[in-house]
Amino acid sequence: MRAKLIESFELAPEVRHFVFEARDGEHFDFVAGQFVSFSAALGGKQITRAYSIASAPGRGARFELCLNRVDEGLFSNFLFAMEPGGEVEMHPPLGMFVMRQPPRDSLFIATGTGIAPFRSMLQAHLADSSPAITLLFGVRYESHLMYGAEFEQLAVRFSHFRYWPTLSRPGSGWRGRSGHVQQHLDEALAGRRDIDIYLCGLKAMVDDVRRLLKGMGFDRKQIFYEKYD
């Protein structure tokens, strides 16, 4: 299976949004939250990297990714340099980081490009009749709040969706939440223990939040996570 790049554009410094099209036919099926793996011969060896899909299923063969460029990362630099029309080898979608069925009221916690699978889940599941969802999204700087305007519009449209951006290095003009996402966990939960928690981001955040949740009495079956390092 191959994927053709349709377009890409900058979301934040060193972060790009990619639109690809699967080239093996008209159908490209996946579940919101899953990932695809790309492979290429780079630097004299075959390299494979997995990337969470940042768009909802049901859009024909097209899908979207959100990823950051790593200074010494052969694959991220390869993708950042790719021009529209370029192709890359792709493996079919995989992954178990998907919403429980039937879904329950949920708290999504993301850092950095860990926001990608949550964008997919929100596009696929958020509706007038869906359970309530809070998205707690942590980045360093305001310029890195990927898809912020999109999430803000969803919060206006759906009263049962809350979008809480959080900056660990806020500028002087920032009036929102600051610090790390862990500091806002109690506020987001509001004493509830009957909801599901989904975590995606760097290992340190995921491990720390899991520790805090277990200390609060959450069952491991209520905690779903995917680490990005």
Written account of the structure:
The chain is an alpha/beta fold and 229 residues long. The protein folds into 2 domains: 2-94, Translation factors (Elongation Factor Tu (Ef-tu), domain 3, Beta Barrel); 106-227, Rossmann fold. The protein has helices at residues 74-81, 116-125, 148-157, 185-189, 203-215, and strands at 2-12, 15-22, 35-42, 45-52, 62-68, 87-94, 106-111, 133-139, 161-167, 177-178, 196-201, 223-227. It has a 6-stranded antiparallel β-sheet, covered by helices on one side. The longest helix is centred in the last third of the chain and has 13 residues, at 203-215. The mean pLDDT is 95.
| Largest sheet composition | 6 strands, antiparallel
Write down the overall geometry.
globular
Number of domains: 2
Name the strands of the widest sheet in spatial order: 4-3-6-1-2-5
DSSP summary, beta strand count: 12
CATH topology of the largest domain: Rossmann fold
- Give, in order, the helices and strands: EEEEEHEEHEHEEHEHE
Mean pLDDT score, rounded? Answer: 95
Fraction of residues in H or I helices = 10-25%
